């Protein structure tokens, strides 16, 4: 394989992220949606995540990697993230979908930036938003309008989502140095560049929070 | 609408059956699959059920029906069926997928038999097997080979699945007489015809049990 050594790791973690997001969103839709229409709307997004998983699995196979093997180093961390951020209600589920997937997508895109263009494009394609934001943003804004006290509660929830995500990401980075290296390479070696990366991620996160009215 | 009055009911119950099967199979795959490969294999089947749900939803909309309204009379019975037949392990999940979906499909096909051919074809299309049987049959047979005692336990499980399905079907039939009427029409009015229908359903069920080695 002529690919950078971190590529299989990147596609592996992303594949498992899509596979587990699909399962969790499906469950949240079935258990938490306040109506059949909402249930179907979130299920549509879940099934789209699965379609993205399929693309990643195919590319892993093309690279000569076993998809299950490529995913397995990341199962524990992603499962732990989901277990620690199980939504308690419908609005929490929507915020999780939007904020959680958003910050994860920012990380994956940064890691893919200096890779082979076909890999960077694949990563970009599977992270495409496809109306997920609009759906979550509209419902969450409407929810806060109906019940203004929900705003503060959801802002705290979003902070917890990010905290848990960073804590799991740190563990993955120390266990998979080649994957971590992709991120460092993408920003250059200097401390200033890493600070800029975090500033960029924070800015994107704050934009998402503002969009939801949080 | 020139359609028979039971058509929206039939497409509605089938749509919710596909939507709930998708959610349950997704959860069983995530929770019970013994490997990532098995998890993906069952998830593929779950996502196929969702694709079938989409076809039914489109047709309901074309008939001028609201899909959520068409599904809602059947939510309680199908949810009760799933709640009472929650698989305890991977082999139970596979038997449920094969036996439960199989007997339900037999009923839906009987009900659609004398409807407008485009409806009958749609029902047939969304009930197409697409390798589900092969997957479940192979894994269950292999499971029994590894652990012969599992056979008796799974045969009892299958009997319970059918018993619960018949009990829920009876409640649906008494609550939705137009849907029940489709089934009666398909076999003619006589008691002998209904006996033949049940003989046919039993025969199909026994074939599925034999295929799994139960």
Fill in the keyword field for this structure.
homodimer; 214 residues; mainly alpha; Ferritin; 10 helices; 82% helix; globular; Ferritin-like (chains A, B); Ferritin-like_SF (chains A, B); Hydroxylase (chains A, B); Ferritin_actino (chains A, B)
Report on this structure.
2 copies of one chain form a homodimer. With 214 residues, the first copy, chain A, is mainly alpha-helical. The first copy, chain A, has a single domain (6-212), classed as Ferritin. The first copy, chain A, has 10 helices and no strands. The longest helix of chain A has 27 residues, at 6-32. The mean pLDDT of chain A is 89. Chain A binds chain B through residues 19-20, 22-23, 26-27, 29-30, 35-37, 39-40, 43, 46-47, 50, 57, 67-68, 71-72, 75, and chain B through 19-20, 22-23, 26-27, 29-30, 35-37, 39-40, 43, 46-47, 50, 57, 67-68, 71-72, 75.
What is the overall silhouette of chain A? globular
CATH architecture name of chain A: Up-down Bundle
The helix fraction of chain A, in percent, is over 70%
Q: Provide a count of the helices of chain A.
A: 10
* H-E string of chain A: HHHHHHHHHH
Low-confidence residue ranges of chain A: none
CATH structural class of chain A: Mainly Alpha
The total beta strand count of chain A reads 0
CATH topology of chain A: Ferritin
**Which chains make the largest contact?**
A-B, 23 and 23 residues
Supply the helix-strand structural class of chain A: mainly alpha
Biggest beta sheet attributes of chain A: none
* Tally of discrete structural domains of chain A: 1
The value of Rg of chain A in angstroms is 17 Å
- Assign the CATH superfamily of chain A: Ferritin, core subunit, four-helix bundle
**Assembly state of the chains shown:** homodimer
User: Roughly what fraction of the amino acids of chain A lie in strands?
Assistant: under 5%
Q: How far is the first residue's CA from the last residue's CA of chain A?
A: 46 Å
The pLDDT mean of chain A sits at 89
């Amino acid at each position: 394989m002529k690919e950078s050594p971190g590529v299989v790791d990147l596609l592996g973690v992303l594949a498992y992220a899509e596979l587990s997001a699909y399962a969790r969103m499906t469950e949240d839709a079935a258990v938490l949606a306040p109506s059949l229409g909402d249930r179907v709307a979130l299920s549509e997004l879940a099934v789209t995540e699965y379609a993205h998983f399929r693309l990643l699995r195919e590319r892993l196979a093309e690279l000569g990697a076993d998809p299950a093997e490529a995913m397995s180093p990341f199962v524990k961390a992603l499962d732990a993230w989901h277990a620690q951020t199980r939504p308690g209600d419908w609005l929490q589920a929507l915020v999780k979908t939007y904020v959680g997937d958003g910050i994860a997508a920012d990380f994956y895109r940064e890691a893919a930036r200096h890779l082979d263009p076909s890999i960077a494009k694949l990563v970009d394609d599977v992270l495409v938003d496809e109306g997920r934001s609009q759906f979550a943003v509209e419902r969450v804004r409407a929810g806060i309008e109906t019940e203004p006290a929900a705003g503060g509660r959801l802002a705290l929830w979003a902070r917890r989502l990010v905290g848990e995500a960073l804590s799991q990401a740190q563990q993955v980075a120390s266990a998979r140095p080649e994957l971590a290296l992709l991120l460092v390479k993408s920003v250059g070696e200097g401390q200033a560049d890493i600070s800029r990366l975090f500033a960029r991620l924070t800015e994107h996160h704050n934009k998402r929070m503002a969009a939801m009215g949080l």
